[in-house]
Amino acid sequence: MSQKISDAFSAPYDPKKVEKTVYRRWEESGFFNPNNLPIADNAKTFTMMLPPPNVTGVLHMGHALNATVQDILIRKKRMEGYRALWVPGTDHAGIATQNVVEKDLKKQGVSRHDLGREKFLEKVWEWKEKYGNIILDQLKTLGASCDWSRTVFTMDDSYKKAVETAFKHYYEKGLIYQGERVINWCTRCATSLSDLELEYKEEKGTLYYIKYPLKDNPATFVVVATTRPETMLGDTAVAVHPDDARYKTLVGKTLMLPIQEKEIPLIADSAVEKEFGTGAVKVTPAHSIADFEIGERHRLPLVKVIDERGKMTQESRICEGLNTQDCRVKVVETLKAAGLLEKEEPLIHNVAHCYRCDKVIEQILSKQWFVKMDGLAKKAADAVRSGAVSFYPKNFEKLYLDWLDNTRDWCISRQIWWGHKIPLEGVDDVLDTWFSSALWPFAALGWPSFAKASEGKPSDLERFYPTQVLSTGRDIINLWVSRMIFSGLEFMREIPFSNVYINPTVLAKDGRRMSKSLGTGIDPLVLVEKYGADATRFGLIWQMMGVQDMHFSEEHLLAGKKFSNKLWNIARFVLQQTENFEIRNSKFEKIQRAKLEKPEREILEKLEQTIQSVHDDIDAFKFGQALHTLYDFVWHDFADVYIEHAKTKDTHNAKRVLSFTLAAVLKLLHPFMPFITEEIWTSMPIAEKKLLMIETWPTASS
Predict the structure, then answer these.
(1) Per-residue pLDDT tens for 176-225?
(2) In this protein, which residues make up the domain named Aminoacyl-tRNA synthetase class Ia (predicted)?
């Protein structure tokens, strides 16, 4: 064995000695930037946008899986000769970032109100500069081959211009309006939230059955079931379903609202569920989004009994100044004393919480800014129904379409300080974070500027939009994916991507969600330190066998580590056997099989089958299946069978087939395990060798 090969393979594979050096080699090559790739000017483009993680974020298992999937796709396309661009960036994450900085200030005994808006925003920028890019650096440790020179932050000046342009467009088109409607309100964060920013948690509650007497016959009651009796102080009607025979003769009559002694109508509305409770529901138009819509249809008055602090208003009368929980106790006691509480039943129900601070959400009447959704939602729905945009797995199309077909106008104003200010004079609110991230596929490429780049070359926006694949999680299909699609169609007149891959959700081994607070979270960087980045990537992808809830098991990372060692040993044997056996890359792919013996022909046939299978599976987003196929070929067909045969055959053809097969294996494995494959490639006996990351992807006809 030559000195070089002996030094490189004398010890077992140690990822700690390899990965940082290899990544530095990639970065120094400049090949993450598609402008530097050794490809033809007319090469096809392939573009992906990294879903921008929050600047408050650190790498978790979901990030690691999603980044690995995208890296597999971009590395394969780069090797196939595409002008491959993967754009990274971070999201300013309005509420989340403001909360983090406020907590930091609280430790110093200071609030944002003590500082004032301008000084507080200076503190946020200081925090962002210190911590905001941590997650991107962590992605590098995992091997992500993004074009870091194009990193975008959603509060960059160029991105601000995009947000302002989009707002102005919608506003002048009459799609943005200010109105008083019921919205979701977090009393802790003191801001509105959209329906999609809520987290629902199962909680033990009580279903209270309250008697509403008929005005003309107080001995007759309509019984209403509710989990929130405190809101009855703002009731302006009771509603039943039009087809509910139990109430046919009562619809249109007048009831007396208990405690308040106010007259309210009994109305019929098809939104009422006949099966819930008694089939009669209280209607509080100022404190329920659904009730607000009923109120609009029946022109009911709006009575606001809960304010933005979560306190009861003067309109509540007997509970003024109390918080909602204390008011509930007082209302129930008062109803019992009046003989108007029929019964109470224990109930397990879903309660909405703020997705950032976990506070229970109130629904209150508030003046906010909204985007009219009817036309935009139809555009986004038609894009999928027509097949212009496809989901993988396909079943997620239903989730997407169900929401769009039933969506309400989008509340885009937030009462916080950190974010994109609504660009209207005298308005202090900022825009919903998702308003700006909806522009990501084109704003991150320079929109609204269409100017040509230097020397007459096309701009990034002209060259790389639309993108081809979006890889993301199912939890933001409606928050983000749908909004990017209608935004792309509205502003670019073109879909932003043609394929949406929804990666599995990574759960703990016992099926619980991963959470630091629950003690079920796992830090991917700890796993990288223990097993190496390649083994971590292997372990994640290995488990992606068509499931949508992945019960993560560390044993698969150990299998990945063992496979790395196996590959290292295979390479050592092949390079020993082919010492001083140099072959030119241009002729390397051409082996006349007719002149080979049966073992050589068989391994090449299986290799060709593997190449085709892996190629097809990656393109079909079947990443786990592709990796299983590769594993079986490398470990069993190549190592267990052919290499054992080659140990007894020291022929020229055997050496050619060993080198050829190893080279093909390294290329196929590179998107999955980039570090070890690149390191082995440096020792391959090929005269015209380049970095493996830009070598030619093998084809079945090779």
Answers:
(1) 999 999 999 999 888 898 777 788 899 999 999 999 999 999 999 999 99
(2) 22-424, 425-552
pTM of the model: 0.90
- Both structure tokens of 96: 């989340």
Angle separating helix axes 652-669 and 623-632, nearest 10 degrees? 160
The predicted pLDDT at position 550 comes to: 87
Main-chain phi, psi angles of 617, to 5 degrees: -70, -40
CA 31 to chain CA centroid, nearest Å: 27
Q: How far is CA 89 from the centre of its chain?
A: 14
Smallest CA-to-CA distance from 500 within 388, 592, 606, 634 is with: 388
- Please say whether the beta carbons of 418 and 124 come within 8 A: yes
| Enclosing H/E stretch for 209 | strand 198-213
The C-alpha atoms of residue 75 and residue 614 are separated, in whole angstroms, by: 14
| Structural domains of the chain in order of their starting residue, each with its CATH number | 193-354 (3.90.740.10), 554-694 (1.10.730.10)
Q: How far is CA 502 from CA 171, 194, 358, 472, in A?
A: 33, 22, 26, 5
* CA 104 and chain centroid, separation: 27
Q: What are residue 311's DSSP bridge partners?
A: 323
Cα-only R_g, the chain:
31
pLDDT of residue 521 exceeding 80, the answer is: no
- Contact at 8 Å (CB) between 665 and 631? no
- The token pair at 676 is 């070890």
pLDDT tens for residues 127-144? 999 999 999 999 999 999
Closest CA to 412 of 423, 401, 402: 423
Mean pLDDT of 28-37: 97
Residues 646-660 pLDDT 10s: 988 878 888 889 999
Are 561 and 541 in contact by the 8 Å Cβ rule? The answer is: no
**Which two three-digit tokens encode residue 607?**
């290799």
